[in-house]
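Example for tutorial group B:
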């Protein structure tokens, strides 16, 4: 059981392009004080996280159908759905809950709202500092239903190279993922700097493209050093 748990956590971590050290850093930011050695022990089956740690692990890794993944007994409504389909079910349920139109009268408390706190990184301040999500300098921002449920963090745009779609000083909400396709707009790390650009991946090479054609593209001469951090959340 422990080894099976560890293998699944390891697989989800790698799907999101996180090293054990990076994963431990994200856990620490959520109040789970662990080292990368602790993550290694979980994944090898040498130890198990406690209940609170487990729930935060699932939240960071976007594991939604916890019962289905770890016990093998999913709810009937998930039958036949892959991981993306299951996530869509949860997103739709969140949308219905947040609308306030379907509140259960037996449940007291506020309805039609879902407040959470997401980190926002300043791209101008991150220049030359390496991996964005490892940086200690970020601003926690409370957000509600105006932000897509898939968003893990935000970036504050610096400059007008992504006009007219994105503006100087604007916060853009990002879904963390390690693989982006040609034409996707997202956050990248290249040559120790963070960029918010459109990915162009065609014959002739990879480029990070500005939307405003007055600005030159960033030519990726060493593709092995290009790291995708996330895509604009929808």
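The residue assignment follows.
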């Amino acid at each position: 059981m422990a080894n099976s748990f560890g293998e699944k956590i390891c697989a989800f971590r790698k799907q999101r392009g996180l090293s054990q050290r990076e994963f431990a850093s994200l856990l620490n930011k959520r109040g789970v004080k662990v080292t990368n050695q602790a993550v290694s022990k979980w994944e090898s089956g040498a130890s198990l996280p406690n209940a609170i740690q487990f729930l935060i692990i699932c939240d960071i890794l976007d594991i939604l159908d916890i019962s289905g993944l770890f016990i093998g007994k999913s709810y009937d409504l998930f039958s036949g759905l892959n991981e993306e389909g299951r996530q869509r079910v949860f997103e739709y349920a969140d949308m219905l809950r947040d609308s306030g139109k379907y509140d259960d009268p037996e449940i007291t408390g506020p309805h039609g709202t879902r407040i959470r706190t997401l980190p926002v990184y300043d791209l101008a301040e991150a220049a030359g500092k390496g991996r964005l999500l490892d940086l200690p300098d970020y601003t926690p921002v409370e957000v509600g239903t105006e932000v897509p449920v898939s968003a893990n963090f935000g970036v504050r745009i610096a400059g007008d190279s992504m006009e007219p779609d994105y503006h100087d000083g604007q916060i853009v909400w990002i879904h963390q993922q390690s693989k982006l396709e040609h034409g996707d707009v997202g956050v990248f790390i290249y040559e120790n700097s963070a960029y918010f650009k459109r990915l162009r991946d065609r014959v002739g090479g990879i480029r990070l493209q500005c939307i405003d054609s007055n600005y030159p593209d960033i030519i990726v001469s060493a593709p092995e050093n290009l790291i995708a951090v996330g895509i604009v959340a929808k």
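The first helix runs from residue 2 to 15. Compare this with the pattern of hydrophobic and polar residues in the output above.
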